[in-house]
Amino acid sequence: MSRGQDEPAAFGPYRVRGTLGRGGMGIVYWGEHRDTGQEVAIKTVEAAFGQVIASIRREIHALGRVRHPGIVQILAQGVDDGRPWYAMELLRGRTLRALIEARRPGEPLSHEELATICGVMRRLCEALSCLHGAEFVHRDLKPENIFLRDDGAPVLVDFGIAARFSGASGRDALETGVVTGSPPYMSPEQIRGDLVDARSDLYALGCILHECLTGHPPFEGPTPRDVIGKHLGEVPAPPSASVPGLPAALDRLVLVLLAKRPQDRMGYAEDVAAALAAFAPAEPTRRCWAEPYLYRPSFIGRHDVVWKLQAHLGAARSGEGRSVFIGGESGIGKTRLVAQLASLAQRAGFTVVTGECVAFGAHGAGAAPLHPFRPLLLAIADHCRHTGPAETARILGERATMLAAYEPTLATLAPAKAAAEPLSILPSRTARQRVVAGLTETLLAYAETEPLLLAIDDLQWADELSLRFLRDLVFTPLVGRRMLVVGTYRTDEVGEALAGLLAAPGASRVELGALDPASTRQVARDMLALPEMPQAFLDFLADASDGNPFFLAEYLRTALSEGLVYRDAGGVFRIAARGQDPSAVRAALRLPRSLAGLLERHLAGLDAPSQRLARLSATIGREVDEEVLRRAAGLPEATLMDALGSLRRAYVLEDGGGGRLRFLHEKLRERAYAEIPEDERRDVHARVGRALEEVYPDEQRIDHVEALAYHYGESGQIERAAHYAEEAAAKAARAYALDDARRRYGDTLVWLEKIPQTEDVSRRRVSATVRWAEACLYEPSLRQIEVLAEAREIAARIGDAGGVLLCDYWASWIAYALGDHAGAIRISERAIDEARALGDHKLLYQLVLNLGQNYAAGGAYDEALASIRQGISMKEQSPWGGRTAGCAYGYGYLGMIHGDRGEFAEAHAYLDTALAITAELGRRSLEDSVLVQRAMVEGWQGAFEACAATATRARTLAEILGAPYVAAMSNTAEGLSLFSLGKREDGLALLREAVQWIEATGTRLNVSWSYGALAEALALSGRAEEAATYARAALARAEAGDRIGLSTAHRALALATRGDAAREHLDAALDAARQKKSPREEALAHLCAARVFHDEGTPAAAQEAAAALAAFEAMGMAGFAGEARALLESIALPGSTRAA
After folding, report:
1. Same domain for 465 and 492?
2. Residue 417 among known ligand-binding residues
3. How far apart are CA 837 and CA 801, in angstroms?
4. Which of 54, 89, 124 is the last residue of a domain?
5. Is residue 670 located within the same domain as residue 609?
């Protein structure tokens, strides 16, 4: 064993003298302590990366605390060049394999040989009991990993794949297990990738005992696959079938250990040792009989729900995609149910992808937008990398660049040519919808490969974008999609957004109730791995836990850890009570009746360092980064490791994977946090904030700004809290999580108001207000204008002219979005003066264009034309000029105004120019807006078939781009055209759909036209009462400043009323048309008057119809001219009535 050239010289205080072995999990070196000369075996842990090194070292430390002569002793540990290592005692001698191979298979055993084998196995059970009592499962028990000392004592070695297990876990994991081990000794559950516990080691022990007795393992085959198949499905032969004369009791013991179901095996290694005692030498001195521990129970009491979910799974496999949401109280077993479904789905050939919504600490601030879907995006990235460019293009297309903002690994799969229209140039609400639609399209494409189960846990903590995505998915027809989407949520924490998702027509709901008493009792038996327990104790558990599995586990754990329930020398559970009735049991156990009391008692049993660490962990959050905890605690490493070990053994914390810890249950975290004295909380939060800054340098800190804002806010360090809140808000805005952005900018402003108002702070307040207003644009309110006015005063007071301008700029936009066009005009005119004074020509031209749009919406067409032309001219003639998106919007408005006035040649010329600019810029969203304007003009012109075609094109594009406002306006244009073409019900359906969307979203921008159009169509259909309702809604919006539908609303009311009221509305319709100088609307008012007068039998009907016909013909409005001509001919017929 000489040193090789590529071997390291040393690990910590140990010199490397050679290599003992290599394996997939690492390398074992022969080492020697430089001071004492002690020889050791040094094992490195390969494939470790930064996140998991702390977790590996914690596990090594915990293993090092397991003291038993039958477990190899870990002497030291460390990290060398990023590789964790640990030093073990160097064993000399042979392995159990040598003992087995010393005799021929099938050869009869003498009494002494049998006693030797059973003695070795009995002592091995001692070591296993100690290991299992520390909640470790070896996972690779085999003769090669059992060393025999010179005196024949067995020693367990090679913990390279050892893992923790705990049946008292506060919740289950959705992730499926990893298959590891050696095929001849692997348990069925280990082969399937299920979660394993100590009974998996006992299965391996049965295989080893069988091999020791017979010379061969219970299952053999030419290939590992054959052996694995036999473990899963073949009944083992008893050892006596190979070696006659073996005691029947040994046969029974081996067969019990080899039971396929863990529940059918013995549960404790000491019980196996007791069974072996009859055949072994005198009992050795006990070194480490473990305290009883809890097992993960079998799946009990939910089979009716599983059948329902299996039906959904079967439908999804057949191409009927489904979305199912599972609700219940905390700890009721939602995650366990979904884990069971995931296991069934995997066996049915589904790809299973899981995610989890995370809440940081008590502040409830969620993780980054779309965080629960990062595992899905990672799975898609892996699939695309493995399948090549064609499949990548099919699944991701140009969406890879967009989605890389939420999962950076997708950036490597983006096409070389960037998408023509990046999200950054889109309106924020459109960009947000584009992200949601893009993720939906990507998921649907991925699900075409093979059946998919997507499971998301804890939706009550989901971020805004995640809920919007799920809502979009629920409303997406999944016929032909082999996909099942499952989410879990707590029924007592359902917010408004989640409630909307759950109420969606495409969402199926399942609510879990309490387990029935019989199921609760069986869960208790399973957790203790015993078929029988004292009935009084079982009755107490069923009553006290209210059928909640988590509460049940808490009662069991407390009763065991405090010795209120114990195993006697014969392995039988006993209660420290006199009498066996439930009241006596309750009195003896002295356990609190409330969960809060039980958790308080749970935590009170910890030592002082562990209590402090639990409180610190609770401050960090439900999941705890171990390095952050280490920095915040400031404890010596050994003390920290010991305290973490105590928290693990006390079922407070568990391994969360990736170098993270997590509370077994949120209720535990809440209780631990509540126990922090009020006067200490600020300091605790400050330490966590500093630790986060230390662990994550500037370039990585962006992922943690939400938590930093919270911790510094709670610590009273308001300036730092405001800094991080502003970064978190900007991050949310970049991800188009607009609700989050608004909330976080609001937090920023609240905190900035609390610190001394220096000029710098005042500037930050103005800047944050402007950014907040930008995020508010598509959900406007009067309060936003008031806040901007306050910020404008601050900017003026400190001489921040740019801030004053930006406050007015965004206030004008919000007033426009509110439909307050008079207010928007007033603010825009002031802002134009400010921009000129500052020489800000870029904002100036946009403000002039905005002013024109507000004039147009208010019906002041002359002023609108002048402003828009001025704005376009300023932009095209400026040094930084050229035709921009603003110019396209301007030309589109020019086209719409000329169209409304009946000047269709000019209108189409402007619209053609606008569309040409959108093509030059590659701006499809802008093209969509101009297409709607074109459809409106074609409808006004009476070119109904052309209008319907253009509107359909615009709506289709809007659906692709995620632009619902444009889709609604397209529906209005197409609905009017279909109505005029005689497809009245189809037209009314589209008109209603547009108005329903407007009412559902509260949109106020240019909506009087949609209300007026629906009202007039209803009136022409003879539905006067309904027409009047929508017409009055249009008038209300017109009075607020949105006057584009004013004349239409009055026409509808004229048709829906009689007598003087009708004439008043006819006069109002004419006045509205004349005010905006629209001959087109005047002609429509004359046509409406002809219909009203004809219905009343008034002679003026012919005159009005003739005037309308002449005007329509002069303007080239052929469709309307046809209507007027038909009406005029009808009037000439004796006894005729109004023709709609």
Report:
1. yes
2. no
3. 9
4. 89
5. yes
Are residues 251 and 358 both part of a single domain? no
User: How would you classify the pairing of strands 623-625 and 660-663?
Assistant: antiparallel
Burial of 35 per CB tally in 10 Å (0-12, 13-18, 19+): exposed
Find the mean pLDDT for residues 926-941: 93
733: domain range? 696-751
d(CA 502, CA 324): 9
Find the angle CA(700)-CA(660)-CA(202) to the nearest 5 degrees: 150
Per residue, the 3-state secondary structure of 82-137, as one string, reads CEEEEEEECCCCEEHHHHHHCCCCCCCCCHHHHHHHHHHHHHHHHHHHHHHHCCEE
Residue 389 inside a domain? The answer is yes
Q: What is the mean pLDDT of residues 643-655?
A: 83
pLDDT digits (tens, 9 = 90+) for 1017-1069: 999 999 999 999 999 999 998 887 788 889 999 999 999 998 899 999 999 99
This prediction's pTM:
0.75
Model confidence at 178: pLDDT above 50: no
CB 511 within 8 A of CB 327: yes
H or E element at residue 384: helix 374-387
Radius of gyration of the chain (CA): 38
Confidence of residue 64 (pLDDT cuts 50, 70, 90): confident
Look at 84-88, 324-328, 797-801, 902-906 and tell me which has the smallest mean pLDDT.
84-88
| Tens digit of each residue's pLDDT (9 = 90 or more) over 985-1014 | 999 999 999 999 888 877 877 788 999 999
The crossing angle, in degrees rounded to 10, of helices 841-857 and 801-817 is: 20
Residues 56 and 148 reside in one and the same domain: no
Angstrom distance (rounded) from CA 722 to CA 712: 9
Q: Are residues 361 and 439 in the same domain?
A: yes
**CATH number of domain containing 626:** 1.10.10
To 5 degrees, how large is the angle CA 817–CA 821–CA 826?
115
Q: Does some domain include residue 477?
A: yes
Residues 622 and 683 in one domain: yes
How many separate domains does the chain show?
8
Domain for residue 910, yes or no? no
Task: Decide if 419 is inside a domain.
Answer: no
pLDDT in tens, 586-597: 666 666 767 777
Q: What is the dihedral of CA 1057, 1060, 1065, 1069, to 10 degrees?
A: 130
Are 371 and 358 spatial neighbours (Cβ–Cβ below 8 Å)? yes
The span from the CA of 77 to the CA of 53, in Å, is 12
Residue in 250, 178, 150 with CA at minimum distance from that of residue 210: 250
Is 1140 a residue whose pLDDT tops 70?
A: no
Q: Which residue has the tokens 């100590």?
A: 198
Q: For residue 39, what is the enclosing H or E element?
A: strand 39-44
Mean pLDDT for the stretch of residues 476-493: 89
- Residue 749: strand, helix, or coil: helix
- CA pair distance 1004, 871, nearest whole angstrom: 25
Please state, as a whole number, how many other Cβ atoms lie within 10 Å of the Cβ of residue 422.
Answer: 12
Where does the pLDDT of residue 383 fall: very low under 50, low under 70, confident under 90, or very high at 90 and above?
A: very high
| 962 conformational bin, left if phi > 0, alpha if psi -120 to 50, beta if neither | left
Please state the rounded mean pLDDT for residues 81-93: 83
474/346 same-domain check:
yes
CATH classification at residue 455: 3.40.50.300
